[in-house]
Structures are given as C-alpha cells and as structure tokens.
Amino acid sequence: MLDVDNLRRVMREEQVVAVLHFAAWLSVGDSVRDPFGYYRNNVRGTLAVLEAMAAESVSRFVFSSTAAVYGDPLEVPVTESHRTVPINAYGETKLAVERALGHVERAYGIRWVALRYFNAAGADPDGELGEDHHPEIHLVPRAIDAALGGEALAVFGDDYPTPDGTCLRDFVHVSDLADAHVLALRALEAGAASNAYNLANGRPYSVRDLIRSVERVGGRAVPAVPAPRRPGDPAVLFASNARAREDLGWRPRFEAIDEIVATAWRWRESHPQGFGDRRQA
User: Fold this and answer.
1) What is the pLDDT of residue 271?
2) Is the pTM of this model over 0.85?
C-alpha cells in the first residue's frame, strides 16, 4: 500500500474514478503497544493512496474513520463538532488522516467524506459474510464464542463510572455502515461538500447489556470473567447521527441490539472455523 507507483498503475488500468478506503490496523490495544506500526500503516499508507489519486486525477474519497478520534467525550451523545482529542494511537492515526484531507482537497481538489464508525457489529443478514478474526478482538463475536463453548469472555474493566461498572458503547450494524458508504459516494458525485459524519445508532449499551443480549438471542449462558481495564478505552462513547441523517439520508435499519446480535449469532454458529467442537458444548 506504500507503493505509490503501483497504486497509480492500478488506478489507471482500472479507470478508477473514486476510492472507498477501508484498509487500516484497528486494535486500540495494539496501537498503544506499537504506535510506529500504526502510524506507518494507517497514516503513511493512506497518504500513499491519496498521492496516487492526486497524480491520476481521482477526485472522490470516502474514508473509514473512527469514533476513537474523540477520545474521552466531554458530553454525550457526541456530535461531529465535539473536540477531537484521541487517547490512543489508533485514534490519532485516523485523526491525522482527517486533518490531512483538508490540505489535500485545497491542493489537489480531492473531495472527501470521513465516516466515523462507532462499534461496528453484526453480520450479513443473508449469511454470506461475517466476522472471523484470529485472534478475535471484538466484543460481540467473543461473547458468542464464549456461549458456544469457547474461552470465557474477559470483561475489560468492571469499575467504570457507569450504571453497571462496564463500558458503554454504541453498536452499529455492518450493513448500515455499508449503506452509509454508498450514500456518501453518491453525495460526492452529486457535488456535496467534504465533511465528517458519525455512524452510530445513538443509544449506549454496556458490556453487560451486550452479554444479556447474546444470552437472549442464543439461549445460552455467556461465561464471563473480570479483567483489568485496557489502556486507551473511554468509559462512555455514543453519538448523535443527526448530520448523517440530514445530509446523506442515512437511516440505520438495525437499531435494536438483539437484531444486531442475532445476525452475528446466525453467521457464527453456521461458520465454526477456529472453534472445532465448541459448537456442541
């Protein structure tokens, strides 16, 4: 991804007219341990794509950003005008790209949309695509794996200043995220101004709320054990999606946590790669 000449060649040969940029490292904990790697991959890699775009006169860019740009919110729900003070290297790398985009637009005419994901979750409702990292780092599939007989779910911090002591998060379905990218690209094609948008449902759920949802959906207990807080995790993070609704016409189709979890459960149960006989546990 750092090879600008190769990126230019691909864009030219494939007659690229717009770029939807998803490539990045995304583990908050890993970013705290390896900031050099995260800056190299997430910042330098994205700048190489933008440089190739400028050279090949590709002028529309949709960027996968993150709620981590906000850091510990001063008030919730978070709006796009909230201050951006990341508390981990992952959020800093995404914010560095967002800040570069304005300069790139002024110099090269590349208009952009930055989509600030909150907690992406769920799976393709048709069962064709789902989440299967090795090792798995995301809460929903980890909780499902625990219910299906895998390792007990580690709850990272149960002493936060929240109603049940666990982190509060805003879960947004991956299909709704996909819809937002299409709408963002259409907006740019129609001449819309560059902007950043929260992609969120606007309702917070705690880790324990999520565990109870998995238990309701799957009909199985989720074994869970307390674990120390992870560095770089804010206590509460949820957002307003009013700007995306107004400007892009985005409407999340999956708003209830049980709906989101149900799609992940169906996919995970029908794709047991990596956990052997645990489905039978």
Assistant:
1) 83
2) yes
Residue 99 has which token pair? 């800040």
pLDDT digits (tens, 9 = 90+) for 60-114: 999 999 999 999 999 999 999 999 999 999 999 999 999 999 999 999 999 999 9
Structural domains counted in the chain: 1
pLDDT of residue 231: 83
In order, the DSSP letters of the chain are ---HHHHHHHHHHTT---EEE------HHHHHH-HHHHIIIIIIHHHHHHHHHHHTT--EEEEEEEGGGS-S-SSSSB-TTS----SSHHHHHHHHHHHHHHHHHHHH--EEEEEEE-EEE---TTSS-----SS---HHHHHHHHHTTSSPEEEE-S-SSSTTSS-EE-EEEHHHHHHHHHHHHHHHHTTPPPEEEEE--S--EEHHHHHHHHHHHHSS---EEEEPPPTT--SEE-B--HHHHHHH----S--SHHHHHHHHHHHHHH--TTSGGGGG-
Domain that holds residue 249: 4-280
The pLDDT value given to residue 280:
31
Which two structure tokens, joined as six digits, stand for 187? 């907006």
Mean pLDDT for the stretch of residues 104-128: 95
CA-derived radius of gyration, the chain = 19
Is residue 90 annotated as a catalytic residue, yes or no? yes
Q: Residue 173 is part of a domain; what is its CATH number?
A: 3.40.50.720
The single residue of 38, 70, 90, 117 carrying the catalytic annotation is: 90
